[in-house]
Amino acid sequence: MTRPERFQAVIDYFKITRPEAETELVFGNPYELLVAVILSAQCTDKRVNMTTPGLFAMYPSVAKLAKADYDDLFAIIKSISFPGNKTRHLMGMAKMVMEQFGGEIPMTVEELVQLPGVGRKTANVITSVIDKQPNMAVDTHVFRVSARIGLTLNAKNPLQTEQQLIKYIPTELVHKFHHWLILHGRYICVARNPKCAECGLKSVCKYYHTVIKKQVIREKK
C-alpha cells in the first residue's frame, strides 16, 4: 500500500466514524480557547474543563485577565499541572494581546507564537479550530498515532510529523484531521496496550501488521 492510499483509507474511515470531530475543550470564543489550550499542556482536557468555568467567571475577557493578580489566578488553576508557569503565561499572554494586538486574539501562527505560553502546536490549534486554517497541530497523540499507522516515516519531532502529514492531507481536511488523530489516540490507539481489536484501521496499520499480528502468530504456535 502506498502512502497516498493509506492516507485515503484513514480519511475514508474517519469520515464515517467521526464526521464531526472537534476539540473536547469547552470554549465560547477565541480568548477562551486560547486560555484552555495553554492550560491543557501536559494536562487532561477533562481537568481543564473543570477549571475554566471559574476562571472565565472571574476573568471573562482578555482585558480582565491582563489585570489579574498572580495569587488570585494561581488559586483558580492550582489543580492544573504546572500552575505557577501557567499563571505567568496567562498573565503575560493577556497583557501582550492588550498592548500589541489591540485586545484581539491574533489569528496567524506567526503572531500567536509571540505570546507567552504559546508554541507552534497551540498556535496551530487556535487557527485551525477558530478559523479552519489548514494548520496541523501535533501533540503526543498525533505524533504516536501517525507513526504507528504509517502516515509518517521516521519523523523525529512534531515539526517533521506536521510537515509529512500536511503533504498528503487535502487542504480542506487538515483542520479536522488533527482531531481525528487526537481522538483515536485518546480512546483507541492509546500509548500502552493499544486497543487493536477494536480498531477499524488495523487493515491499513503498519504497527498492527508488523507488531501485533506477529505477536498473535507467535502465541498460537
Automatic annotation (TrEMBL):
SMART domains in the cross-refs: ENDO3c, FES
Q: Where does [4Fe-4S] cluster bind?
A: C189, C196, C199, C205
| InterPro entries, per database record | DNA_glycosylase, Endonuclease-III-like_CS2, Endonuclease3_FeS-loop_motif, Endouclease-III_FeS-bd_BS, HhH-GPD_domain, HhH_base_excis_C, HhH_motif, Nth
Q: Which residues form the HhH-GPD domain?
A: 39-187
Keyword match Zinc: no
Q: Which cofactor does it need?
A: [4Fe-4S] cluster
One example of a Gene Ontology biological process annotation: base-excision repair, AP site formation
Enzyme Commission numbers on file: 4.2.99.18
> Which EC class heads this enzyme's classification?
lyase
Report whether Lyase shows up as a keyword of the record: yes
- Gene Ontology MF annotations: 4 iron, 4 sulfur cluster binding; class I DNA-(apurinic or apyrimidinic site) endonuclease activity; DNA binding; DNA N-glycosylase activity; metal ion binding
Record's catalysed reaction(s):
2'-deoxyribonucleotide-(2'-deoxyribose 5'-phosphate)-2'-deoxyribonucleotide-DNA = a 3'-end 2'-deoxyribonucleotide-(2,3-dehydro-2,3-deoxyribose 5'-phosphate)-DNA + a 5'-end 5'-phospho-2'-deoxyribonucleoside-DNA + H(+)
Mind listing the UniProt keywords for this protein, alphabetically? 4Fe-4S, DNA damage, DNA repair, DNA-binding, Endonuclease, Glycosidase, Hydrolase, Iron, Iron-sulfur, Lyase, Metal-binding, Nuclease
Co-factor remark: Binds 1 [4Fe-4S] cluster.
Function, as annotated, reads: DNA repair enzyme that has both DNA N-glycosylase activity and AP-lyase activity. The DNA N-glycosylase activity releases various damaged pyrimidines from DNA by cleaving the N-glycosidic bond, leaving an AP (apurinic/apyrimidinic) site. The AP-lyase activity cleaves the phosphodiester bond 3' to the AP site by a beta-elimination, leaving a 3'-terminal unsaturated sugar and a product with a terminal 5'-phosphate.
Name the family: Belongs to the Nth/MutY family.
This chain's protein is named: Endonuclease III
Q: Which organism is it from?
A: Flavisolibacter ginsengisoli DSM 18119
